[in-house]
Amino acid sequence: MALDDLKAALPEYAKDLKLNLSAVIGNSDLPPQQLWGIVLACAMATRSPAVLRALAPEAKANLKPEAYTAAKGAAAVMGMNNVYYRTLHLLSDKEYSSMRAGLRMNIIGTPGVEKADFELWCFAVSAINGCGQCLDSHEAVLKKAGVEREVIQASIKIASVLQAVAATLDAEAAIADL
Questions:
Q1: Tell me: the pLDDT tens digits for 41-67?
Q2: pLDDT at 1 over 80
Q3: What pTM was computed for the model?
Q4: In the annotation, is 131 catalytic?
Q5: Contact 54, 9 (CB under 8 A)
Q6: Domain that holds residue 155
Q7: Neighbour tally for 160: CB within 10 Å
Q8: What is the pLDDT of residue 2?
Q9: Which of 107, 125, 128, 131 is catalytic?
Q10: Structural domain includes residue 26
Q11: CATH code, 64
Q12: Is 134 one of the annotated active-site residues of the chain?
């Protein structure tokens, strides 16, 4: 199992991350499409080759082809949107927020999977990328769709653990050559 390989790759000082990987992915109560869509989108958002190589095959095995593609699309479009909307939020000149973005993001309207699942994946990626405006926007859509807080929280936990795993593995790879 790829998850076991990922846990085995973590150093002993990151034992909490190993345990958290088991808890948030290995023992998740989320339906497989929600879970593995979050995992794949977040793995892409971490930008970690090690995390992506470990988890993408398992995500592919657990997702229908259209869900696999949509999860990758969520990571891609949110990579753009999170930078754009986070910047608008941070700028002192609020006039930028009233300007038309003019950025294509058609996948959000027609993701090819259940809208709530896609929104959940976008929400998790936004947590990794730190865009408060996108988090608020996607959370509002999720709540309106009847998604429970516990499901939303589960996506945050997955995002946070995968980001920490990615940072740890990438840092270990970088200092291994020292």
A1: 999 999 999 999 999 999 999 999 999
A2: no
A3: 0.95
A4: yes
A5: yes
A6: 32-91+106-176
A7: 16
A8: 86
A9: 131
A10: no
A11: 1.20.1290.10
A12: yes
